[in-house]
Automatic annotation (TrEMBL), chains A, B:
Keywords: Cytoplasm, Glycosyltransferase, Purine salvage, Transferase. This is Xanthine phosphoribosyltransferase. Belongs to the purine/pyrimidine phosphoribosyltransferase family. Xpt subfamily. InterPro entries: PRTase-like, PRTase_dom, Pur/Pyrimidine_PRTase, Xanthine_PRibTrfase. GO terms for molecular function: xanthine phosphoribosyltransferase activity. The gene is xpt. Homodimer. It comes from Candidatus Limadaptatus stercoripullorum. The keyword Transferase applies. Xanthine binds at L20, N27, K156.
Length: 196, 196
């Protein structure tokens, strides 16, 4: 998606440790106009797939999932990372490693909100090593629901998580795939798969 | 807002410890149609106030803020609870006690995303003792930005946080105010301030 690539080039910042900071428009301050376009684009890609539920993980995926939900007219389920007093004990649970947070966390959804018969599109802001998506896919599997695919805003292609999932047959749609990045240059993968 | 009150009566569950569970439509599984109406209602209430930024706190406030943002055409800033590798060290910071999580957490926003000149509407899913709103108001104050008011979906009126803020002159708009709740009955405050 050209609009997102251009925004990354303009406002993204490369931090040490292969971290791309996009907090100014995607996952801390959220640009309403950009997210509208991202939501539309995700819907255009999966509109024919009978999606009944969007699923993401707190916190940064929620905004993108909500902007997509308007077009699917489907509910958004977000996996949680900490048990609170208002959570039932009857949950699907898995472990996820986070590279930006550092460390492992247990993520879960309540069983009553994810069921066999659901056709689930997983949405997230970032795809790097693929840990969060693998965790969400595992929750879908536990529920006996059907995975339609995964849509992410930014894939760090050079960290391999996206291509590993694709090799396993998961439909992964990324609006911008970064093949390499340094302080000076961010190179996107073009739609035919080559670096551009 | 009648639609939200009716939904709480239909699908809300009262848990021990004065906890109201609305995970089936508001803050775990998010009902797209209901949130559309909530977003519109919040906008209708504050549309004449020159709001330039919506602000919330991860995770449950994000969805509501995004559904409102479409109408304000304003960005959403969400305060974070944990420092990650992609966060700058230059932040406004405060402490917030959470009753549902149990315990205190440090919340913060990066300084570059909240500035003097911003006219900020704070949005959250719940208002109980008012800890989260007070924390967000403190961040707005630190930035020298202007607070327009606070909009929340569900206020637990009997816990007093909303009325304390109103007594201090903060405009607090709640779409549903619960004056009392037991396993058998949830009583809402009517728009003239009486219990209904």
């Amino acid at each position: 998606m050209k609009l997102l690539e251009e925004r990354i080039l303009r406002d993204g910042k490369v931090y040490p440790g292969e971290v791309l900071k996009v907090g100014g428009f995607l996952n801390h301050l959220i640009d309403d106009g950009l997210l509208e376009e991202i939501g539309k684009d995700i819907h255009a890609h999966f509109s024919g797939d009978g999606v009944t539920k969007l699923m993401t993980i707190e916190a940064s995926g929620i905004a993108i999932a909500c902007y997509a939900a308007r077009h699917f007219h489907a509910p958004v389920l977000f996996a949680k990372k900490s048990k609170t007093a208002n959570i039932s004990s009857d949950c699907y649970t898995t472990e996820v490693v986070s590279y930006t947070h550092g460390g492992k966390s247990t993520v879960f959804v309540e069983k009553e909100y994810l069921r066999a018969g659901d056709r689930v599109l997983i949405i997230d802001d970032f795809l790097a090593h693929g840990e969060a998506l693998r965790g969400l896919i595992e929750l879908v599997r536990q529920a006996g629901a059907e995975l339609v695919g995964c849509a992410v805003a930014v894939e760090k292609g050079f960290q391999g998580g996206g291509d590993e999932l694709r090799a396993k047959g998961v439909r992964v749609y990324s609006l911008a795939i970064i093949d390499s990045m340094t302080d000076d240059e961010i190179v996107f993968r073009s739609e035919d798969g080559s670096a551009s």
